[in-house]
Design goal:
Length: 120
């Protein structure tokens, strides 16, 4: 079973990468790996070595500890402490790209078919 810390670090790397507009290919090139390996890191399918963590942190210009920040929750933090949007985002973020596109289309269709609100 995948360690929760590996999952959290992978999510944090993905978040930082997306926030900075960097593709998996660009990150992979910068650290001497393929985009597939970056994808495996982000999904915690492969563990990240200390040297790669240091390289990734340098690329994002953060301390290595910043890559662990989402895994440093206190024991009382639970899903109920998060708002609905945050929970949904975390679920969506875990979906494969093709499923995410279909889910987005489904949500769009649901919104389109909502009854119009009457204004006073």
């Amino acid at each position: 079973m995948t360690d929760p810390i590996d999952i959290a670090v992978g999510k944090r790397i993905r978040q930082l990468r997306k926030d900075r507009g960097i593709t998996q290919t660009q990150l992979g090139d910068a650290i001497g790996l393929t985009f597939q390996q970056v994808q495996k890191y982000e999904k915690a399918r492969n563990r990240i070595s200390a040297s790669k963590l240091a390289q990734i942190a340098a690329i994002f210009q953060v301390d290595v500890a910043e890559l662990f920040s989402t895994s440093m929750k206190s024991p009382h933090d639970t899903e109920t402490d998060m708002d609905d949007a945050t929970i949904l985002y975390s679920y969506i973020d875990e979906m494969p790209d093709d499923v995410r596109r279909h889910f987005k289309d489904l949500l769009g269709a649901i919104i389109e078919h909502q009854p119009q609100k009457k204004t006073a």
